[in-house]
Amino acid sequence: MNTKVQKGEYMDTLLRSKNSVFSTKDIALLWRDTQTTASQVRLNYYVKIGKLIRVRRGIYAKDKSYDKYEFATKIFRPSYVSFETVSGMTGMTFQYYGNIFVASYVKREIKCDGQIYSFVKMKDSILANPMGVDQSGQYAIACRERAFLDIVYRSKNYYFDNLRQLDWDKVFEILPIYNNKKMVKTVEKYYKQYQINK
């Protein structure tokens, strides 16, 4: 059944959703609404009466406690949380980075609600490959092995504090998606260093 959401149910539809952040496209899909002007008027009304928060142009949140990672992956699509954000979460690096690092098709730095989002440009073939990217939640996030490889792809001489967290079989399984011979040598160098230090 593909019927349009009835009047009075629009806000309930958003509140029932597991998402905390919505793009205008997400909302149009939830509301099954093809009339963008009507949707925009409705969204402006909900923002005006305080039922929704406009976080950024075209992106809305249920409230101020929205998920920052979910928001980060809505700004530019396709994208996934990776790099120092994941390496810090998983203990590969001990230095704190306040930025949220996101793999994307553009290189940008955006500040919103006091949070800095750093978008790192990746080749389309890498960005589109789901290997090592968990997409089961409300946003896509790299596993520690994919984040490690993303960092090596971006920075050839990066210092990692702890590589014992990595599943090296998984690292070498994901590595071919980068299609980069120099990177293979760099990863092998990190692996040898890991074997010496373990």
TrEMBL record:
It holds the Pfam family AbiEi_4. It comes from the Bacteria. Residues 11-61 form the AbiEi antitoxin N-terminal domain. InterPro entries: AbiEi_N. This is AbiEi antitoxin N-terminal domain-containing protein.
